Amino acid sequence: MSESSLLRQRRNEREVTDPVTHLPLTVHDHVSGELDDLLPRLSEEQDQLSPDQRNEDEKDDSKQHHVGLEHIIGEELRRRRWQLPGDSDVQSRTKIETAIVAACATAAVGPLGLIGLWAWSKIFGRSGFGWFELLSGTIGCLVLALCVGACVLFVPFSYLLRYLEENIEPQVQKSASPEIPGPDNHPSQEHPESATWLNSLFRTLWPIVNPALFTSISDMLEDALQASLPKLVHGVRVADIGQGSEPLRILGIRFLDAGRAGHDIGGMKAEVGDFFNLEVAVAYRARTIQGTKGSKGLRGRAGNAHLLMEFLIAGGVVIPVWVELTGLLATMRMRVQLTPNPPFFALTTLTLLGQPKIKMVCTPLAKNFLNVMDVPGLSGWIQRAIDDVVSAYVAPRSITLDLKTLLMGRENTDTNAVGALVVTVRNAKEFKDGDGGSIFRSKEKKRGDPYVCVGWSKWGKPLWSTRIIKSDGNPVWEETTVLLVGPSEIHARESLRLQLFDSDLLTADDHLGTVDFPLKDIMEHSENRISARQDRLTKVDGTFSHGTLSWECGYFSKTTLEQHLDGRHSDVSGLIQRVEDEVENKLREASIRDDKTGKLDQQKKQDLAEKAQEIMAKSQPREEWPSGILYIKIEQITGLEVEKVRQSGVKEGGDDDEAEDLPSAYCTVIINHQRVYKTRTKMKSNNPFYNASTEKFIRDWRSTFAMIAVRDARAHEVNPLLGVVVLPLHTLLTHRGVSHLSESFPLVGGIGYGRMHLSLTFRSVQLQLPTRLLGWEIGTLDIAPRVTASFNLPPDLAACRLVFRTQHGKGKMEAHLEGGWRPRNAQRNIRVAVTRRYASSLVVEFRKQKHKMGLGSERVPAFAVLWLKDLSEGHELDVTLGVYKSQGGALARAEANCVDDAGNRVGEITIKLCLWPGLSGYHQGAADKDIHMADVMEALDCAEESGEVERDLLFDEYGIDDPSSSDKDSDDSQRRSVNGESGGFRAMRRRQGELHRKHRGLMQWQGARNLAWAGRGVEHAVDKVSAKITGKFKHHENDIGIEKEV
Question: Rg of the chain's alpha carbons, rounded to an integer?
Fold first, then answer.
């Protein structure tokens, strides 16, 4: 392609900031013309030669290469031989060349002048100038020339030296051969050097590289394709990936100056330590196969880089497609950090200079023959997906790789988050009336329905929300959340954003004001402590609005090595001194060369951080610091298959990745009986590779219970549970005595088999929460069957019925003749389900019976409120509650606002209760309306049925009984006392549910499972329509949702 046409295609040039050098750089996307003009591999013709011809050529090439190397050595020796003392190689060459030029000029001009005089005398007949004068004058000129040359070499004329440095020396450097650089040459090169030797190494190494190393690349491609599937395609997976025998070629490579990498430019953090920069151009051209029979088949085409993809379409039909890479052209820059320890490379930052050009061919495969026709639409779709993946790393964006971890096989034993940000939203006052323009509300009710969202200002997405307080102009929330702070938030210079909204039923929620506070200021002024604030609300444009927001915040960093080893008889100061001595010993040569102490200090910090990370990973967490960051990484599931319940015996052949009925698995992480993370679905694979990770703040690692549920994504069926992995954090970390573990765990309790390899890390933060704030969000409130009243409680209230209610349950007690209240069955406790415990309350209503109500009297004349955030889990407590009259909306305000005084106090009641953590049978009503809670309960059932060990780990580790099982036992005993058959019927229903969950009984038939899926779909559709209708008349809490893998 002509140069003018290439220039026309390069109109997409743009200037960006190079992430490597932090300098402005003009880049352009590579075009197809450049890839078409790329020369094929020079040695490709040798593949067609016979072995004898190839051996002869290799002998000649070997001799030529050796002669060339000897020539380079000779050039180096000659250059050293002519080097002047005290000067560099280039300076010596400059002086010698200048001296030769000056001497030759002097020696040539003198004799020419003498010859001219001699000819002048002969022509005009003048005497006195003969042969003797001519000869003596020539000799004198030669002597003068030698003197001039010697002066140039050895006389230090300052002006002459300055002239040589400014004019002559740069020309000499430019003319010097790039293949033979001198020792004092600057590492930056104007022209790239040849990489023939590196390409030869690639050619030998490339075919023997393990293809499993490219799994992460196919993983990203599969995710990109999954996100843009056409409607006719239900799923896609990369069944196989191979790099072939044709390697990548390096077209050119050159060193780069550091530029301004040591400065903060455009949000890019300054680099510290030793590193070097490279610019590399790489290309790939597919091998052209000719001549042999079957060379156009898969065996012949497998010599090129390729993918085998499988597309799942309607009806469960799988279409395999062979994707062959035919061409690639890319230019990149990289910065490699150096370290004194093997493998001597640490972090590497890589950025692409413009969008690379990639070409490929897609070929559908049939069972018995190969269709050699390419499908342009399919190729274009896959190529767009690849371009989308690659564009995420085009300058100014980049990717950072830990080469030390990759090359040494060392796992990451630390969390990405560096600390936790604790935010408490207290109350809001004097804000604008969000319902001021509503014509459907009375003047008394035009107070708005406020709630607060918390998140990052630049990211914009709300990460947490308070409850909605209805019709209140002075809301009091007293809710606390924790946000993790990572390098991305720090580098982006994020600000914490709190937004006050008014919830509306029919229209979009009204924005009432915002509070932004820089994260940097919080980390500097509120580190490891809580600071109370009261800020004015601002509008979207930054001007002040009506109202103020009272809140608290504090940043808590991870515990230090000293805190982690405190009281463990470890000499921390001695450890630090040993690390510093080792660093000084390793870098003694570098410190002599550079004469800098900054490098030593930086390496000391780095080595000490690595040593501290290693020590903390190999020791269990401290109980003095129970709160922290939990990191879970799901790497891979091996040997995943579904049990064939209708087949007998053992299946021969082991793992068969070509089987038609492979599961499409995805994983859900459950912490403290709440879904917190979901991976993507890996289509039709018995060895799915995820490499998916999440980090969550946990209040107390000693009581945290984690599970990973693996489900099979199926069409027209309820996704069955393949199995669960049970991870009781306290048991795992204390029994192994570590804070980091990387192991394989079996899937238990489901319809499948397999082993999951995962990594788990816990790092404490310097936060010590009160005991009441260390609990779970979900629990069961157990109320003893006796409530007493104070002596001053009015008699009419003492005769009322008590109703205990939370958001998901309620219970009743009747007035007793001996005083106080008891349930109808005096031996049975009242148990009610609790969700969002730290934003919920227990309301105790005094209700009059209808036949005792007078004219105009209220059904609920009094009430008492207990906020569950004030309770400690697992402890039986006697709680005294104030009783208030229910007048003027006092009950509605007291159960929505966390206040101490709820109005006119008329007495007290004393309740004995206990809050048990986790889901129980009393959450079944809530689970029927919440599919996510139902999935968690199903996973819990599988964990319980997997064996006694799992049951002990679930509930008995800290002496806490299983509330669901005890409840069910008590329920069964109660029912048996009334109807002896009820308990048996309940047990039968439970066993039937177990059989159905494991696809036995009626559910072993696919038709029955399809009907169950259809019935469940109808139920969900009805619930969705019902929620949509009721949503017009009732406020629903904001659902932030769970984190999903991108």
Answer: 39
Which residues are registered as beta bridge partners of 424?
480, 552
Tell me the H-state helices in 210-314. 215-226, 298-301
Distance CA 1025, CA 323 (A): 45
Distance CA 173, CA 189 (A): 11
Burial group, residue 870, by CB count within 10 angstroms (0-12, 13-18, 19+): middle
How many whole angstroms separate alpha carbon 721 and alpha carbon 709? Answer: 7
Torsion of Cα atoms, 799 then 800 then 804 then 810, to 10°: 120
List, as one string, the DSSP characters of 807-867: TTEEEEEEEPTTSSEE-SSTT--EEEEESSGGG-EEEEEEE--GGG--TT--S--EEEEEE
CA atoms of 468 and 830, how far apart (whole Å): 28
Q: Which two tokens stand for residue 278?
A: 């490279």
Rounded to whole angstroms, the Cα distance separating 487 from 20 reads: 18
pLDDT exceeding 70 applies to what percent of the chain? 67
CA distance 434 to 503: 8
Closest CA to 273 of 332, 347, 333: 347
* Residue 614 to residue 743: CA distance in whole angstroms: 17
With a CB cutoff of 8 Å and minimum separation 6, the contacts of 832 are 780, 781, 783, 804, 805, 806, 808, 809, 810, 811, 842, 922
CA pair distance 633, 750, nearest whole angstrom: 21
pLDDT exceeds cutoff 70 at 57? no
pLDDT for 653? 45
Q: For the chain, give the mean pLDDT.
A: 76
Chain centroid offset of residue 563 CA: 28
Asked if 312 and 281 count as a contact pair (C-beta separation under 8 A), the reply is no
Phi, psi of 326 (to 5 degrees): -105, -20
Antiparallel, parallel or unpaired: β 357-364 and 399-402: unpaired
Instruction: Work out the widest C-alpha separation in the chain, in whole angstroms.
Output: 160
Tell me, what DSSP letter sits at residue 86?
T
Q: Are 808 and 832 in contact (CB under 8 A)?
A: yes
Q: What is the mean pLDDT of residues 89-108?
A: 73
Distance (Å, rounded) from C-alpha 633 to C-alpha 728?
A: 16
State which amino acid sits at residue 582: E
Q: How far apart are CA 677 and CA 668, in angstroms?
A: 6
Task: Kindly report, residue by residue over 547-573, the tens digit of the pLDDT.
Answer: 999 999 999 999 988 888 776 656 677
Task: Give the pairing of strands 674-678 and 1043-1044.
Answer: parallel
Cβ neighbour number for residue 1039 with a 10 Å cutoff: 8
pLDDT of residue 68: 62
Collapsed DSSP state (helix, strand, coil) of residue 669: strand
- Give the number of residues written for the chain: 1046
Question: What's the DSSP call for residue 567?
Answer: T
CB atoms within 10 A of CB 908: 16
**Residue 27: which of 261, 331, 400 has the closest Cα?**
331
Helix, strand, coil shares of the chain, percent, nearest 5, are 35, 30, 35
Residue 685, classed as helix, strand or coil, is coil
Q: What pTM, to 2 d.p., does this model score?
A: 0.71
CB environment 114-127: b (16+ within 10 A), e (fewer): beeebeebeeeeee
- Of 555, 548, 556, 558, nearest to 425 by C-alpha is 548
Provide the pLDDT for residue 761: 94
Residue 388, phi-psi category: left (phi > 0), alpha (psi -120 to 50), beta (remainder): alpha
Closest C-alpha among 970, 985, 988, 957 to residue 920: 970
β-strand partners of 327: 285, 359
Q: For strand 877-885 and strand 905-917, is the pairing parallel, antiparallel, or unpaired?
A: antiparallel
Q: Is the peptide bond before 181 cis (omega within 30 degrees of 0)?
A: no
pLDDT beyond 70 at 445: no
Q: What are the φ and ψ backbone dihedral angles of 962, each rounded to 5 degrees?
A: -75, 110
